[in-house]
Amino acid sequence: MAPVEIVSFGYLHGQPPAAHLTIDLRHHFRDPHVSPELRYMTAADQPVRDAVLNTPGIQALVDATVQAVEAFAGGPSAGPVTVADGCAGGRHRAPTFAGALADRLTAAGHTVTVHHRDIRKPVVNR
To answer: By CB atoms within 10 Å of each CB, which of 71, 77, 112, 117 scores lowest?
Structure first.
């Protein structure tokens, strides 16, 4: 199995990292930032993970991304696969999605590394 690197990031903190596959979570999925009780939490907090993972469509996107990674990994020039997933600030949706994707890919036999580029950056006031 090809090794997989997953990088979560926030578009408001700079350009997306280089990747074979980039997932933009900004416009189609519930943003915990809009809830005052979740705004200053991160994906390290269970209420944030619950809010993101219970958003309609997220599980289907995790499934589809697993399939896309498998397609990249199975290609004739198979090698490491990098997935970048971003939301606005990089503290809620992107790292939660990255964790769910990592769990699924690890269960499928991949060696997975995860890096949360922007999770420790301050909350962006928007």
So the answer is: 77
